Amino acid sequence: MVSLVARILAAVIGCYGLASAWSMALALAWPQLGLGARAEGTMIGLVFAFAIGVGVVIWCFTVVSLRRMLAGLLLAALLLCLPIFRFLP
Q: Sign of the C-alpha dihedral, residues 66, 71, 76, 80?
């Protein structure tokens, strides 16, 4: 029962956190990479954020151990935070 509650909380919080981090990272990096305006990066980031959210929920419920699930979520969050800090104005 505790495992199920932990997975639900990790899925909800991780889905929101990683989708937001992805949108922010893409919105900041898009104009810096010369691909277009920041608004375009924001729109593309939001479109892909839905897919990332679904992937996070699937990840939380398919991984066997809670440690591996949390480690994967933390690693993804750290990797998404690198471009955010790199491209901040």
A: positive
Please give the full DSSP string across 43-86, using - where no structure is assigned.
HHHHHHHHHHHHHHHHHHHH-S-HHHHHHHHHHHHHHHHHHHHH
Residue type, 2: V
pLDDT digits (tens, 9 = 90+) for 57-86: 999 999 989 999 999 999 988 888 887 777
With 90 as the cut, is the pLDDT of residue 23 above it?
no
Please tell me whether residue 32 adopts helix, strand or coil conformation. helix
Phi, psi angles (nearest 5°) of residue 50: -65, -40
